[in-house]
Design brief:
This protein is mainly beta. The chain folds into two domains: about 100 residues, Immunoglobulin-like (Sandwich); about 180 residues, Sandwich (Immunoglobulin-like), CATH 2.60.40.1260. It has three helices and 21 strands. The strands form five sheets. A seven-stranded mixed beta sheet has the order 15-16-14-9-8-20-21, with no helix packed on it. The protein has a five-stranded mixed beta sheet with strand order 12-11-17-18-19, with helices on one face. A hairpin with a 4-residue loop joins strand 1 and strand 2. Helix 1 crosses helix 2. The longest helix is centred in the N-terminal third of the chain and has 16 residues. The radius of gyration is 25 Å and the shape is elongated.
Length: about 325
Protein backbone atom coordinates (compact mmCIF):
# COMPACT_ATOMS: atom_id res chain seq x y z
CA UNK A 1 0.00 0.00 0.00
CA UNK A 2 2.89 2.36 0.87
CA UNK A 3 4.45 1.97 -2.61
CA UNK A 4 1.09 2.68 -4.29
CA UNK A 5 0.70 5.91 -2.30
CA UNK A 6 4.23 7.01 -3.25
CA UNK A 7 3.50 6.29 -6.93
CA UNK A 8 0.32 8.38 -6.94
CA UNK A 9 2.00 11.28 -5.11
CA UNK A 10 4.87 11.23 -7.61
CA UNK A 11 2.49 11.28 -10.58
CA UNK A 12 0.50 14.15 -9.06
CA UNK A 13 3.68 16.13 -8.57
CA UNK A 14 4.66 15.61 -12.18
CA UNK A 15 1.20 16.67 -13.33
CA UNK A 16 1.71 20.14 -11.86
CA UNK A 17 4.28 20.93 -14.55
CA UNK A 18 3.16 18.54 -17.33
CA UNK A 19 -0.54 18.88 -18.31
CA UNK A 20 -0.54 15.74 -20.46
CA UNK A 21 0.60 13.62 -17.54
CA UNK A 22 -2.13 15.29 -15.52
CA UNK A 23 -4.69 14.06 -18.05
CA UNK A 24 -3.38 10.52 -17.80
CA UNK A 25 -3.60 10.69 -14.03
CA UNK A 26 -7.15 12.05 -14.30
CA UNK A 27 -8.11 9.12 -16.55
CA UNK A 28 -6.56 6.63 -14.13
CA UNK A 29 -8.24 8.13 -11.10
CA UNK A 30 -11.69 8.77 -12.60
CA UNK A 31 -11.88 5.64 -14.74
CA UNK A 32 -13.10 7.70 -17.73
CA UNK A 33 -13.34 5.31 -20.68
CA UNK A 34 -16.19 7.07 -22.53
CA UNK A 35 -15.26 8.17 -26.04
CA UNK A 36 -16.52 11.52 -27.42
CA UNK A 37 -19.81 11.22 -29.33
CA UNK A 38 -20.90 13.41 -32.23
CA UNK A 39 -24.26 14.90 -31.20
CA UNK A 40 -24.90 17.51 -33.92
CA UNK A 41 -23.76 18.24 -37.45
CA UNK A 42 -24.96 21.43 -39.12
CA UNK A 43 -23.86 22.72 -42.51
CA UNK A 44 -23.47 26.50 -42.35
CA UNK A 45 -23.16 27.33 -46.07
CA UNK A 46 -21.47 25.92 -49.17
CA UNK A 47 -18.04 25.76 -47.52
CA UNK A 48 -18.53 25.38 -43.78
CA UNK A 49 -19.87 22.73 -41.41
CA UNK A 50 -20.06 22.82 -37.60
CA UNK A 51 -19.74 19.65 -35.52
CA UNK A 52 -20.69 19.46 -31.85
CA UNK A 53 -19.56 16.69 -29.51
CA UNK A 54 -20.77 15.32 -26.19
CA UNK A 55 -17.80 16.69 -24.23
CA UNK A 56 -14.74 18.92 -24.54
CA UNK A 57 -12.43 17.66 -27.28
CA UNK A 58 -9.18 18.29 -29.06
CA UNK A 59 -8.92 17.80 -32.82
CA UNK A 60 -6.08 15.64 -34.11
CA UNK A 61 -7.01 15.16 -37.77
CA UNK A 62 -9.46 16.53 -40.38
CA UNK A 63 -9.60 15.50 -44.05
CA UNK A 64 -12.05 16.48 -46.81
CA UNK A 65 -12.13 14.58 -50.11
CA UNK A 66 -10.74 16.72 -52.93
CA UNK A 67 -10.08 19.82 -50.80
CA UNK A 68 -7.94 21.38 -48.11
CA UNK A 69 -9.53 21.62 -44.67
CA UNK A 70 -9.09 24.32 -42.04
CA UNK A 71 -10.91 24.64 -38.74
CA UNK A 72 -11.53 26.83 -35.74
CA UNK A 73 -12.99 26.22 -32.28
CA UNK A 74 -16.18 28.19 -31.41
CA UNK A 75 -16.08 26.48 -27.99
CA UNK A 76 -14.47 23.48 -26.30
CA UNK A 77 -17.10 21.00 -27.56
CA UNK A 78 -17.41 22.27 -31.15
CA UNK A 79 -15.32 22.56 -34.28
CA UNK A 80 -16.16 24.61 -37.36
CA UNK A 81 -14.56 23.16 -40.49
CA UNK A 82 -14.07 25.07 -43.75
CA UNK A 83 -13.42 23.42 -47.11
CA UNK A 84 -11.23 25.15 -49.70
CA UNK A 85 -13.59 23.78 -52.38
CA UNK A 86 -17.37 24.36 -51.98
CA UNK A 87 -19.48 21.36 -51.05
CA UNK A 88 -22.04 20.34 -53.66
CA UNK A 89 -25.75 20.74 -52.85
CA UNK A 90 -26.61 17.61 -54.84
CA UNK A 91 -23.71 15.19 -54.31
CA UNK A 92 -22.16 14.31 -50.96
CA UNK A 93 -18.44 14.62 -50.23
CA UNK A 94 -16.70 12.70 -47.45
CA UNK A 95 -15.25 14.37 -44.37
CA UNK A 96 -13.07 12.51 -41.86
CA UNK A 97 -12.35 13.81 -38.37
CA UNK A 98 -10.53 12.32 -35.38
CA UNK A 99 -10.94 13.83 -31.90
CA UNK A 100 -10.03 12.97 -28.31
CA UNK A 101 -11.24 14.07 -24.89
CA UNK A 102 -9.24 15.26 -21.90
CA UNK A 103 -8.70 11.64 -20.80
CA UNK A 104 -7.29 10.75 -24.24
CA UNK A 105 -10.29 8.66 -25.27
CA UNK A 106 -10.48 9.09 -29.04
CA UNK A 107 -13.19 8.81 -31.69
CA UNK A 108 -13.11 8.97 -35.48
CA UNK A 109 -16.02 9.87 -37.76
CA UNK A 110 -16.58 9.63 -41.52
CA UNK A 111 -19.40 11.93 -42.67
CA UNK A 112 -21.17 12.53 -45.98
CA UNK A 113 -21.49 16.30 -46.35
CA UNK A 114 -23.73 18.38 -48.62
CA UNK A 115 -23.42 22.13 -49.15
CA UNK A 116 -26.19 24.36 -47.79
CA UNK A 117 -27.86 26.91 -50.06
CA UNK A 118 -28.84 29.91 -47.94
CA UNK A 119 -31.00 31.37 -50.74
CA UNK A 120 -33.83 28.82 -50.40
CA UNK A 121 -37.08 30.86 -50.61
CA UNK A 122 -40.08 30.66 -48.33
CA UNK A 123 -42.32 27.92 -49.68
CA UNK A 124 -45.04 25.48 -48.63
CA UNK A 125 -46.54 22.16 -49.70
CA UNK A 126 -49.65 23.45 -51.50
CA UNK A 127 -51.22 20.40 -53.16
CA UNK A 128 -50.57 16.70 -52.82
CA UNK A 129 -51.63 13.47 -54.55
CA UNK A 130 -50.58 9.99 -53.39
CA UNK A 131 -53.24 8.01 -55.26
CA UNK A 132 -51.95 8.57 -58.75
CA UNK A 133 -52.56 6.73 -61.99
CA UNK A 134 -50.57 6.46 -65.20
CA UNK A 135 -52.16 9.67 -66.52
CA UNK A 136 -52.45 11.39 -63.12
CA UNK A 137 -49.23 10.38 -61.29
CA UNK A 138 -48.31 10.94 -57.66
CA UNK A 139 -47.12 14.53 -57.33
CA UNK A 140 -46.50 17.40 -54.97
CA UNK A 141 -46.99 21.09 -55.65
CA UNK A 142 -44.86 23.69 -53.89
CA UNK A 143 -46.04 27.29 -53.68
CA UNK A 144 -43.16 29.78 -53.79
CA UNK A 145 -43.74 32.68 -51.38
CA UNK A 146 -40.52 34.67 -51.85
CA UNK A 147 -37.77 35.01 -54.46
CA UNK A 148 -34.86 32.61 -54.18
CA UNK A 149 -33.03 29.59 -55.51
CA UNK A 150 -33.98 25.92 -55.01
CA UNK A 151 -30.56 24.29 -55.36
CA UNK A 152 -30.20 21.54 -52.75
CA UNK A 153 -33.77 21.66 -51.39
CA UNK A 154 -34.52 18.07 -50.38
CA UNK A 155 -38.01 16.56 -50.76
CA UNK A 156 -38.38 13.31 -48.85
CA UNK A 157 -40.97 10.55 -48.46
CA UNK A 158 -40.46 10.35 -44.68
CA UNK A 159 -37.98 11.96 -42.27
CA UNK A 160 -34.24 11.45 -42.64
CA UNK A 161 -33.31 7.90 -41.73
CA UNK A 162 -36.93 6.77 -42.10
CA UNK A 163 -37.49 7.76 -45.72
CA UNK A 164 -38.50 5.51 -48.61
CA UNK A 165 -37.11 7.85 -51.28
CA UNK A 166 -35.94 11.42 -51.74
CA UNK A 167 -35.28 14.06 -54.39
CA UNK A 168 -32.77 16.92 -54.34
CA UNK A 169 -34.01 19.86 -56.40
CA UNK A 170 -31.75 21.39 -59.08
CA UNK A 171 -30.24 24.88 -59.34
CA UNK A 172 -33.41 26.84 -60.16
CA UNK A 173 -34.13 30.55 -59.66
CA UNK A 174 -37.77 31.16 -58.69
CA UNK A 175 -39.98 34.15 -57.98
CA UNK A 176 -42.77 34.75 -55.51
CA UNK A 177 -46.00 33.35 -56.97
CA UNK A 178 -44.30 30.58 -58.95
CA UNK A 179 -45.17 26.91 -58.51
CA UNK A 180 -43.03 23.78 -58.57
CA UNK A 181 -44.65 20.42 -59.33
CA UNK A 182 -42.62 17.36 -58.37
CA UNK A 183 -43.79 14.19 -60.13
CA UNK A 184 -42.82 11.27 -57.91
CA UNK A 185 -42.03 9.14 -60.97
CA UNK A 186 -39.38 8.77 -63.66
CA UNK A 187 -41.00 11.47 -65.80
CA UNK A 188 -41.31 14.24 -66.88
CA UNK A 189 -38.01 15.86 -67.73
CA UNK A 190 -37.64 19.38 -66.39
CA UNK A 191 -40.02 21.72 -68.23
CA UNK A 192 -41.51 25.17 -67.59
CA UNK A 193 -44.97 26.51 -68.37
CA UNK A 194 -46.55 29.92 -67.73
CA UNK A 195 -49.82 31.03 -66.20
CA UNK A 196 -51.83 33.96 -67.57
CA UNK A 197 -50.54 36.17 -64.74
CA UNK A 198 -46.95 35.45 -65.80
CA UNK A 199 -46.07 33.13 -62.92
CA UNK A 200 -43.92 30.18 -63.83
CA UNK A 201 -44.75 26.51 -63.24
CA UNK A 202 -41.71 24.24 -63.02
CA UNK A 203 -42.34 20.53 -63.73
CA UNK A 204 -39.72 18.22 -62.20
CA UNK A 205 -39.43 14.42 -62.17
CA UNK A 206 -38.16 12.92 -58.90
CA UNK A 207 -37.05 9.73 -60.65
CA UNK A 208 -38.53 7.48 -57.96
CA UNK A 209 -39.22 3.89 -59.01
CA UNK A 210 -41.98 3.62 -56.38
CA UNK A 211 -44.91 5.89 -55.69
CA UNK A 212 -45.84 7.58 -52.45
CA UNK A 213 -47.71 5.71 -49.74
CA UNK A 214 -51.32 5.69 -50.96
CA UNK A 215 -53.13 5.58 -47.63
CA UNK A 216 -50.62 6.67 -44.97
CA UNK A 217 -47.45 8.66 -45.12
CA UNK A 218 -45.24 11.61 -44.33
CA UNK A 219 -43.79 14.10 -46.81
CA UNK A 220 -41.06 16.49 -45.70
CA UNK A 221 -39.14 19.40 -47.22
CA UNK A 222 -35.61 19.96 -45.84
CA UNK A 223 -33.40 22.94 -46.57
CA UNK A 224 -30.74 20.49 -47.71
CA UNK A 225 -29.82 16.81 -47.65
CA UNK A 226 -27.29 17.53 -44.88
CA UNK A 227 -27.47 15.59 -41.63
CA UNK A 228 -29.20 18.06 -39.29
CA UNK A 229 -30.63 20.67 -41.63
CA UNK A 230 -33.90 22.42 -40.87
CA UNK A 231 -37.35 21.25 -41.93
CA UNK A 232 -39.16 23.83 -44.08
CA UNK A 233 -42.56 22.14 -44.25
CA UNK A 234 -44.17 18.75 -43.66
CA UNK A 235 -47.41 16.88 -44.33
CA UNK A 236 -48.75 13.89 -42.41
CA UNK A 237 -51.68 12.09 -44.08
CA UNK A 238 -53.73 8.97 -43.33
CA UNK A 239 -56.97 7.26 -44.28
CA UNK A 240 -57.45 6.40 -40.60
CA UNK A 241 -58.02 2.70 -41.30
CA UNK A 242 -54.69 1.09 -40.44
CA UNK A 243 -54.73 -0.98 -37.27
CA UNK A 244 -51.04 -0.98 -36.33
CA UNK A 245 -48.38 1.55 -35.27
CA UNK A 246 -50.87 4.07 -33.92
CA UNK A 247 -52.91 4.07 -37.11
CA UNK A 248 -50.16 4.57 -39.69
CA UNK A 249 -49.49 0.93 -40.63
CA UNK A 250 -45.72 1.30 -40.96
CA UNK A 251 -42.87 1.48 -38.45
CA UNK A 252 -40.95 3.99 -40.60
CA UNK A 253 -44.00 6.24 -41.00
CA UNK A 254 -44.73 6.04 -37.28
CA UNK A 255 -41.12 6.99 -36.49
CA UNK A 256 -41.38 9.94 -38.88
CA UNK A 257 -44.62 11.12 -37.29
CA UNK A 258 -43.11 10.91 -33.80
CA UNK A 259 -40.08 12.92 -34.93
CA UNK A 260 -42.23 15.65 -36.50
CA UNK A 261 -44.45 15.80 -33.41
CA UNK A 262 -41.44 16.11 -31.09
CA UNK A 263 -40.03 19.01 -33.12
CA UNK A 264 -43.39 20.78 -33.47
CA UNK A 265 -43.40 20.36 -37.25
CA UNK A 266 -46.77 18.57 -37.05
CA UNK A 267 -49.42 18.68 -34.35
CA UNK A 268 -52.60 16.68 -33.82
CA UNK A 269 -54.14 14.09 -36.16
CA UNK A 270 -53.06 13.44 -39.74
CA UNK A 271 -54.71 15.12 -42.71
CA UNK A 272 -57.57 12.82 -43.74
CA UNK A 273 -57.01 11.35 -47.23
CA UNK A 274 -59.75 8.69 -47.05
CA UNK A 275 -61.83 10.29 -49.82
CA UNK A 276 -58.87 11.37 -51.96
CA UNK A 277 -58.46 10.02 -55.51
CA UNK A 278 -56.15 10.83 -58.42
CA UNK A 279 -58.27 13.94 -59.15
CA UNK A 280 -59.50 14.68 -55.62
CA UNK A 281 -56.30 15.99 -54.07
CA UNK A 282 -55.20 17.20 -50.67
CA UNK A 283 -54.95 21.00 -51.04
CA UNK A 284 -54.02 23.85 -48.73
CA UNK A 285 -56.75 26.35 -47.93
CA UNK A 286 -56.01 29.62 -49.77
CA UNK A 287 -54.59 32.27 -47.47
CA UNK A 288 -54.47 29.86 -44.55
CA UNK A 289 -51.60 30.33 -42.14
CA UNK A 290 -49.31 27.33 -41.85
CA UNK A 291 -50.36 25.75 -38.54
CA UNK A 292 -48.53 22.44 -39.13
CA UNK A 293 -51.78 20.55 -38.69
CA UNK A 294 -54.59 18.87 -40.61
CA UNK A 295 -56.63 22.11 -40.48
CA UNK A 296 -54.37 23.51 -43.23
CA UNK A 297 -55.70 21.01 -45.81
CA UNK A 298 -58.93 19.87 -47.46
CA UNK A 299 -59.85 17.38 -50.21
CA UNK A 300 -60.95 19.01 -53.44
CA UNK A 301 -64.12 18.10 -55.32
CA UNK A 302 -63.84 15.41 -58.01
CA UNK A 303 -61.65 16.67 -60.88
CA UNK A 304 -60.89 19.69 -58.73
CA UNK A 305 -57.11 19.39 -58.85
CA UNK A 306 -55.34 22.68 -59.49
CA UNK A 307 -51.65 21.76 -59.86
CA UNK A 308 -49.76 24.81 -61.09
CA UNK A 309 -52.37 27.40 -60.11
CA UNK A 310 -54.31 28.82 -57.18
CA UNK A 311 -56.24 26.31 -55.09
CA UNK A 312 -59.74 27.53 -55.89
CA UNK A 313 -61.67 24.24 -55.81
CA UNK A 314 -64.53 23.57 -53.45
CA UNK A 315 -64.00 20.88 -50.81
CA UNK A 316 -65.35 17.41 -51.47
CA UNK A 317 -68.49 16.44 -49.57
CA UNK A 318 -69.23 12.72 -49.21
CA UNK A 319 -72.72 11.43 -50.04
CA UNK A 320 -72.61 9.23 -46.95
Amino acid sequence: MKSLIILIVTMLALSCSQPEIGNIVNSALTGDRTVPALIASQTQDLNTIRLTFSESITVSEVRIAGAEASWQRPDSRSVQITSSVPFSTSEARSLFIRVSDMAFNSSAFLLSVYGKNNEIPRLLINEFSSRGTRTQPDRIELEIRSDGNLSGLCAMDGTKGNENSSFILPDLDVKRGDYVIIYWTDTPQETVSRNSDGSAVYHLGAGSSTGLGSNNGVFVLYQSAGLDDDIIDALVYSDGKSSTFSGFGSASVEASVMELAASGQWTGPAADCDDATSTRTLSRWNGNADSNSCSDFYITVTRGQTFGSTNSSLPYVSDE
